[in-house]
């Protein structure tokens, strides 16, 4: 559950940490750390069900397993 301020305000896009996953630009909210995605309508919260796509690359800094 996001902190209360992000339920009333827009999420705060961390523009210093935007990365590209081959389909969309992505980042995290600076306040609540929720994953964000930029689609045609602008930034919104990344939806694991709706936005799952095998063409997406993993975060370039993700630790290798
Ligand atoms: Zn937030």
Explain the overall architecture.
This protein has about 60 residues and is mainly beta. It has a domain of about 40 residues. It is about 10% helix and about 25% strand. It has 1 helix and 4 strands; from the N terminus they run αββββ. It has a 4-stranded antiparallel beta sheet with strand order 1-2-3-4, with no helix packed on it. It starts with a helix and ends in a 20-residue tail after the last strand. The model has no long low-confidence stretch (mean pLDDT about 90). The site of zinc ion (ZN) has 7 residues, from loops.
Write the layout of secondary structure elements.
Layout lengths: L3 H5 L10 E2 L4 E4 L6 E5 L2 E4 L20
Antiparallel strand pairs: 1-2, 2-3, 3-4
Zinc ion binds next to loops.
